[in-house]
Amino acid sequence: MRNKVKLGILVVLAAILVGIFLFTQLGNFPGYVLPKRSIKILAIVLTGASIAFSTVVFQTITNNKILTPSIIGLDSLYMLIQTFLIIIFGATSTVVMNKNINFLLCVGCMVLFASFLYKFLFKREGQNIYFLLLVGLVMGTLFQSFSSFMQVIIDPNDFMIIQDRMFASFNNINTDLLTLSIILVILVFIYFMRFAKYLDVLSLGREEAINLGVDYDYVVKRLLIIVAVLISISTALIGPITFLGLLVANVSYQFLKTYRHSYLIAGSVFISIIALVGGLLIVERVFTFSTTLSVIINFVGGVYFIYLLLKESKA
Question: Cα–Cα distance between 167 and 111 in angstroms, integer?
Fold first, then answer.
């Protein structure tokens, strides 16, 4: 089956699930329910697309299919920045209460960290997957530990504000940031188009890409900034979802079986939308909220992550 046909199937399946979510079980007040669901589905689509997009790009520049921005601790860093801002400026300050200013400040900090990460980790030669994975896990644990430490010493009322932003919640989406997030995603996509042509070559590895004429340092640094911005958007809207990117990116590799990133990125985005909307339908309509989608995703993703590690160790 050709990849264009496979992508078409994914698009149709995603559209059907979105349609079922929007237009079934509207009850007696469709005029109230439908706008609420439309905003929710827009945020979910934006989050799923950001996570899938950033994961495929991140795996290409790190040249492995196990590492993701979440596993290496980028979403933990976002929560650390939130906690740090509340401690420094207070929960009632404009920096914290104005969600747009708070969001832009966090995105700026994430971009600075991406530059730091590139300089001290990716620019060094001779790093293998296990070193990157080890450093990522250490950084993620370090960020979470710092966040926990600071949350213990702050005022309980301030802690409640942090707690609202800590847990992935598909029923309490931060819709105030939706407009700004859409604008940022569009700007990021326009900026990304300058570097999209290099991804297929970057997947060959650092030395091969340099030999083929790619300005490796320049391109990878800017792609890392794109990844940092997309992770900020997804974390701000719904919260950290550690293993979604790992799942959808690897399913995309297996389903499309191609090296061309034009197909891989599009495929992973639609698989992510199918996973989130389909999972949300099951949680809401089948399990009637007896569990949460983030728990299911992290459980399935965690098992799949262990499978990939065992598979890699036997290779």
Answer: 23
Rounded to whole angstroms, the Cα distance separating 244 from 71 reads 10
Is residue 151 within a helix (H) or strand (E), and if so which, with residue range?
helix 129-153
DSSP 292: -
Burial class (CB in 10 A: 0-12, 13-18, 19+), 143: buried
- Cβ count near 174 (within 10 Å): 18
DSSP, res 198: G
From first CA to last CA, the distance across the chain in angstroms is: 28
pTM, full prediction: 0.85
- Separation of alpha carbons 190 and 167, rounded Å: 31
Q: Which two tokens stand for residue 45?
A: 């689509």
- Chain-centroid distance of CA 311 in Å reads 24
Q: How far is CA 208 from CA 134, 211, 220, 301, in A?
A: 25, 5, 14, 32
Token readout for 148 is: 């926990």
Give the rounded distance of the alpha carbon of 144 from its chain centre: 17
Distances (CA, A) of 179 to 22, 99, 237, 267: 20, 12, 11, 25
Give the SS3 label for residue 306: helix
Count Cα atoms within 13 angstroms, Cβ side, for 273: 26
| pLDDT tens string 58-109 | 889 888 787 788 766 777 777 788 788 877 877 777 777 777 787 888 888 8
